[in-house]
Structures are given as C-alpha cells and as structure tokens.
Amino acid sequence: MNVLLDNLALFREGFLGTLWLTVVSALLAVVLGLLIAGFRVSPVPPLRIFGTLWVNVLRNTPLTLLFLVAFFVVPKVLFPGVDSFVLAVCACGFYTSSFVAEAVRSGINTVPMGQAEAARAIGMTFTQTMRIVVLPQATRSVIPPLSSIFIALTKNTAVAGAFDNVDLFNIQKTLSNDGYDIAVIFIWITLGYLVITYAINGLFRLLEKGLEVAR
Amino acid sequence: MSASVLFDAPGPKARFRNLVYSVVGSIGLAALIAWVCYRLYDKGQFAGELWDIFNYAGIRENILEALLSTLKVFALAGVFSLVFAVLLCVARLSDHKPVRWVAVVFIDLFRSIPLLITIFALWVGILGHMTPMWALVLGLTIYNGCVQAEVLRAGVNSVPKGQVEAAYALGLRKTQVTASVLFPQAVRAMLPSIISQLVVTLKDTSLGYIILYPELLYSARLIANNTPVGGVYPTVQTVIVFGAIYISLCLALAWLAKFVERRGSRSKAGIVPAGAKELEEAAAPAAPETKGPGGAAPPSK
After folding, report:
1. Inter-chain contact A182–B45, Cβ cutoff 8 Å?
2. Which residues contact residue B10 at a Cβ distance below 8 angstroms, ignoring those fewer than 6 apart?
C-alpha cells in the first residue's frame, strides 16, 4: 500500500500517460484505418495496392521495430526534433491502423451482396445505399473486433514506456530502480491497466447494445 | 472486383473517373515515395559504403546468431505456450467449480496485462533471479498460453453437443471424451487461429530488446550503433534489413495459416479420418470467428 501512497503523483502521471497515449493513438488508428480500408475496397488499383501493402507490412512488423524506426530513423532523416509523445502515438497509431483497416474491410465483406442489389433495385442512389443499407450493417459487425483491437492497443502502449515516454511501464521501471518490491509495483500497475481495458470493454458493450437490432 | 456491395460494375463514365483517380492516386503515392527517397538521399543514406557493412562476415554471423536466438525463444515459447494452453483449457472446461474459477481468473488477468509488464516483472525478479531469455520465454508462455487457451475453448465449444453425448453413450470416460473427441476437432477447427497467434508470439519475441536479450532487434541496434561508416550510423540500412527478416518470417507463418485454412475448408469437415465421414456430416466446424485477443486479427481472406 505504501508504494502507491508514497508515489501517488508518479502513479497518476503514469496512468494519465497511458490513457492519453491510448486515446490519441486510437483516434489516429481509426482515421487512418478507415482511410486505408477505403483504399482497399476502392475501384482504383494503385490505391488498392497501397492499402494491401500498408496492411501487410505493418501487421507483420513487430511493434518494437516500428518504435525503433520512429525513434531512431524518423527524427534523423525525415522530421528532426519531433516530440517523443508524437513519435510514440505515430508508431502505435500506424500499427493499430492496419488492424482497424482489416476489421473494417471484413465488416464490409459481411454485408451480403443481395442487400446492395435490393437497395439499387428499389431505386436508391449510391449515397442512400451506403448510408441506409450497407454501412449500418457493416458498423454492427465491426464493433466487436474493434473493442479487442483497442484493448490490444492499450497494452501495446507499454512499449512506448520503454522509449522514454511517461506511462505505467515507465513508472514500473522507475519504481523498481528505486528499490521497491517488484511484486507490489506489479499489482498496482496491473490494476491501472485493468481499469483502462475494462472501461474500453464496457464502452463497447454499451455501443453494441445501442446498435443492436432484432433480426 | 466487379462484384462488390460497394459499387456496381463501372460504366464508361465511372471507368473514366476511376482512371483519373488511378492517375491522381499514383502520382500522389509516387510523390510521397519520391519525397522519402529524396530525404534519404539528401542525408546520404544511399551511399554504397553504408550498405557495404552487410558484406562483412562478422556482421553476417551476428545477424545469423541473432536470428537463431530469436527463433530459439520463439520455438520454446511456442511449444510451452501450446502445452500450457491445453492445460489451461482443460482447467477452464473442468466440471469442478474451483478449478474452473482459478482458470478463468488466471486467463482474464494475464490476458489484460501488457506482455511487456509481465516480462519486465519476471526479469527484475518477481519469481527469483531469471536470465533475460527465460524471462522472455516464460512471459510469452504465460500470455500466449492464456490466449491460445481461449482459442482452444472456442474450438471445443464449436464441437456439436451430440458428439459428446454419443461418446458418453458409447461408454467413454471423461478423459477419453476430451482427448479423443473434443480436442482433435477443436485443434482442427482452430488451427488457422492458433497459427496466427503464433505469428503474434514471433513478433512479441522482439520485446526481448527491452530487457536486453540479444535477439534480432537488439543486435540491429548494436550493429547500427557500433559500425559508423565515415561518421554516419547505418540505422536506416539495418532497420531495412532486419525489418525484411521479420516481415518474411511472419509472412511465411501467416501463409502457412492460410494454407491450412484452405486445406481445412476444402473437405467440408476438415481433415476427416477415413470411415468417419458419415458420422461427421453435421460436424462441419464453422469457420473460426475468434479474434486473436492478443491484438492480431487472424489473417482474413
């Protein structure tokens, strides 16, 4: 208990660091993921190829390697002097975007062909078909995988802590260097992560309930 | 691509528009790539000497050694995690409530702790002194064991109830039902998911970098830092080389998963033992739907 009370400020900083990293990277991942998924299902071959490459390369690269690129290559070659938080968000966000893109794409694929055909047959325009028929159904099947992707993202942000970002992993390192008992630190850090992952889980449960329809 | 929910087969107008988009998109992407290449060129990263380091036998041996130690951890963690997963899954499906609860708590707990936190705690010595390698192997085993256990459980649950009832009716004991009816079918149904979780295991061996285990990434950093060529550190070059190694390893495994999936889906109920075909008419396991909760989606077709 003392470990927590003595270092409350540190713990709060670490918790907020992890939370903030998760939220910002999740936003980046969703925006990029939707864009890439759009590329992958578009009728334009170069964009499709780019989307496929993006997903395959990022999904098959270890996150640690991406962090290595973000922290040792990007500042040296492309953008000198970028904040380490931005670099961490980019690494996590880019990595997660490939999973989001795949989830969105397979969500779209679950909508049966007949739905779109029927929509066109009763005279709906392209926008109407998308807005009223295809996208609502696709969204419903994208929500569950997205929840596990974001939980994975929360856990992945721990790698950022190893690269000089203040987050829960970073705090764990600091405290264990200060000589506190690792078992006790471990319990508190774990609790921090559990709070975030369960919050995400609950949020998506709610979202899923809200979108639920009787079929 | 002509059959899609998103758009109809393009007519002349749409074909023209797609052509315009293609050209604009290509130009945009080419510009992006050209810009990155220009920046690399500008910083002198394309100089031949920087790439020349990979011609030295010493560096090549380093890479090979690192690759082997990555593969060693992967092999150990892969085998241990699968064994551990079977144990956990059996405990999770046990008829005894306390055993079941312990398994549920264990699985849920370690699935929601970041692997890095577990590995670090093991390395620092939560269970006594441990070398980086064993901390890494044990961490990977615990985490992936939990994930694989859930995958297996989904597989066991996909076996129709009638089969278990039939097996009991034949007089098989609980162990026999589990070992000879449930698990073989569960493994077969879930093989693609199991393999794609192994891809995640392989990628996660790179966390060894953080606890100073000399695997691929760690040696990439060493090479990049210790062999400056004319005052320039070959970071970009080593990252490209090691990235290619990782990507090809993972793609090979992912390809294996796809191959197994295709092979499994060719015959309706997977690899049906001869003579058992009629019995398994109804058994056709649905295509696995589980997400690798470790963050990786199983490669979708």
Report:
1. no
2. A43, B2, B17, B18
